[in-house]
Write a structure and sequence with these properties.
It is a single chain. By secondary structure, the chain is α/β, with parallel strands linked by helices. A five-stranded parallel β-sheet has the order 7-6-5-8-9, covered by helices on one side. Helix 7 links the parallel strand 6 and strand 7. The chain starts with 16 loop residues before the first helix and ends with a helix. It binds phosphoric acid mono(formamide)ester and norvaline. Phosphoric acid mono(formamide)ester (CP) binds next to helix 2. Belongs to the aspartate/ornithine carbamoyltransferase superfamily. OTCase family. GO terms for molecular function: amino acid binding; ornithine carbamoyltransferase activity.
Length: about 300
């Protein structure tokens, strides 16, 4: 029997391969419409979205708010001082109150358990805008960007260089549903969550490698991917991490080992001169701004899907 469609988008692997590819096709379609200047497609007309941010954001906030508006809806920004989930009010109460006003919730939180609780008690769809554990909207946008530039994600070699963080967990979960070659090159002690690596390996869909040798890892890469060494909530560790992560900077020499066909991706914000050099991020094969733009288009399609539109 077919699995019941989940109401929420909390992890990439909440959807099966066919659904992910369908959403990405829809993203391309609606992107073309928006870019053509067409402003009469308003599927979110009369709908509202509550956006809860416990952490800072540029892309996530602006892309969700703008995308929802362009398709006819109204999005509310609720910053770290507004809801204070778990402090001012219990998550289960926030979930049930917002469900009575809004059609969809998007949340960027610290603890992953908080978004699971939010989804559990909400009667409306909940979309994960990043937790300490994962960042599924980012990886949907990344997949869209790879499909646009390479033609397909299937069979490509994606090499992530840096901290085994929330971005890596979403890549691993994507690799558990769509076949490609995923390599994470990270310093010892900064590997991604073991259970998530195991889950991706057990799925038997993709080739998964975890290594501490970035130079070996990037050979033959279609995509080299970088992210900050200290994520939100870890900024006090930044100085220490800069020491430990020596050798994991994506620079020109590393991109040369990867080869001329390799694109550079970064979820942004980037710390130039730390995890990536200015030269690499400004190079012609760096597609980080196309990638950032696709946040909006990928998410529009995710929202259309969870709202059944
Ligand atoms: N990539 C990303 O999520 O960016 P923001 O933190 O600016 O939303
Ligand atoms: N790993 C980063 C991603 C930012 C979009 C963080 O969590 O801060």
């Amino acid at each position: 029997p077919a699995k019941a469609e989940p109401k929420d988008f909390l992890h990439i692997s909440d959807f099966d391969k066919a659904t992910i590819l369908k959403i990405l096709d829809r993203a391309k379609e609606v992107k073309a419409l928006i870019k053509s200047g067409e402003r009469t497609y308003l599927p979110f007309k009369g709908k509202t979205m509550a956006m809860i941010f416990a952490k800072p954001s540029m892309r996530t906030r602006v892309s969700f708010e703008t995308g929802f508006f362009l398709l006819g809806g109204h999005a509310l920004y609720l910053g770290p001082n507004d809801i204070q989930m778990g402090k001012r009010e219990e998550t289960r109460d926030v979930a049930r109150v917002l469900s009575r006003y809004n059609d969809v919730i998007m949340a960027r939180l610290f603890a992953h358990q908080d978004i699971l609780d939010l989804a559990k008690y909400s009667t409306i769809p909940v979309i994960n805008g990043l937790t300490d554990y994962n960042h599924p909207c980012q990886i949907m946008a990344d997949a869209l960007t790879i499909i646009e530039h390479i033609g397909q994600l299937e069979g490509t070699k994606v090499v992530y260089v840096g901290d085994g963080n929330n971005i890596v967990h979403s890549w691993l979960l994507l690799a558990s549903v769509i076949p490609f070659h995923f390599v994470c090159a990270c310093p010892k002690g900064f590997e991604p969550d073991e259970k998530t690596v195991e889950k991706a390996r057990q799925a038997g869909i993709s080739k998964i490698e975890i290594t501490d040798d970035p130079r070996e890892a990037v050979k033959g890469a279609d995509v080299v991917y970088s992210d900050v060494w200290a994520s939100m909530g870890q900024k006090e560790e930044a100085a220490h991490r800069r020491q430990v992560f020596q050798g994991f900077q994506v620079d020109k020499a590393l991109m040369e080992i990867a080869g001329p066909k390799a694109y550079f991706l970064h979820c942004l914000p980037a710390e130039r001169g730390v995890e990536v050099t200015d030269e690499v991020i400004e190079a012609p094969n760096s597609i980080v701004f196309a990638q950032a733009e696709n946040r909006m288009h990928a998410q529009n399609a995710v929202m259309l899907h969870v709202l059944g539109l």
